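>> Question from a student workshop board

For tomorrow's exercise we were told to take the sequence and the ligand below, predict the bound structure, and bring the output to class. My setup keeps failing. Could a helper post the expected result so I can at least see what it should look like? The ligand is 7TS.
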Amino acid sequence: MEKDLKALGIKVEKKKEFDVYLVRQDFPILHRTVRDKPLIYFDNAATTQKPKIVIDALVNYYTNLNSNIHRGVHYLSQAATTEYECARRIIKTFINAKHEEEIIYTRGATEAINLVAFSYGEAFLSEDDEVLISHMEHHSNIVPWQIICEKTGAKLKVIPIDDKGELILDEFDKLLSERTKIVSIVHISNSLGTINPIEYIIEKAHKVGAIVLVDGSQSIQHVPIDVQRLDCDFFVFSGHKIYGPTGIGVLYGKKDLLEKMPPYQGGGDMILSVSFEKTIYNVIPHKFEAGTPNIEGAIGLASAIRYVQNIGLDVIYDYEMELLNYATEKIKQIPEVKIIGNSKNKASLISFVVENVHPHDIGTLLDRDGIAVRTGHHCTEPVMRRFGIPATSRASFAFYNTFEEIDVFINSLKKIIVKFK
Ligand code: 7TS
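>> Workshop helper replied:
Here is what the output should look like for this input. Compare the format with yours to find the bug.
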């Protein structure tokens, strides 16, 4: 394997601390077969698999802790509350937020973006204002802004992308003006893999007085995040993409912004007192957490974050880059395959199309070899339209994937191409 990498001109750095075969032991699902073949899971951009420590945290919660939080004097309620709030502290430290109350639990990235669009947008946007997004956004970072622009009269503007799948920054500079009130931008594209220069975008947006939301759905699991260093106003992500459970996500927001925003939903926990004449809202973060939350989700997410911290995101990033470079070089050797998304800064995913073969056929036939990839528009229809294609096949890698798995994938892909000739 090392010889293979060297032959491809890929620098191999031995990392004593990282042993992929050892970490694979932590993920029970990676040991199952699919269609009598060992599972090769390359659909990590859609959702990641869960280490046993996360599964155990969920089982332990329901076995030993289950209780509603915040409003109980009894032992279990207090114990569950402690775990739930302790998870918030772990998330705060992980992304280096300044205050614990800047971490709001949501159902996921989608709900977090909707929360900002509806709460902040409805309160502070009006006609003459502009919201700036990019051509490579996930539908979750397009549709909420369309709805809110329709309601408020604000205008939605779009930063174009070039043939490599990179933002055209000159156009971004031109689109920015005093009218720009919100820039909502994806950190890493889920269909192209592009890593966007968000530091530049945040700095420029702040100069015209706009606030910036970063969609970190595809970055939280790949690169270290420091929201204070970034100076972003909001940062959102989903737990299930960073080896945690589904149904839990995070909205990070700067304290002063969250404090001046109206609630998104009404219900229990988000109030200090209720009367028919006047309801007084709770302080953040509770103001934005109406109703019984996903308690086990928060606890499971904290456990996933601790697991990732233990390996180290820098170690994860380096290994995933080796996987990406290896797979890219191998794919490029197949003349019928075209990679969509060739940014110089890319995360570990490859979107591709194959001459004369529909992506759905690629996905279906790879599945027969036990290989899970995603095919379709990946909830980024404007990206597909920009490249004049209906869909792509997408292989997305996590740190538990191996070079051997990539070899099996490449061989299977070559077989499929021959079949369609
Ligand atoms: N933003 C980006 C960049 C995403 O990749 C996704 C999910 C979302 C937002 C929404 O996340 P959710 O957890 O709230 O649904 N992306 C994908 C994908 O690429 N394939 O399946 C889901």
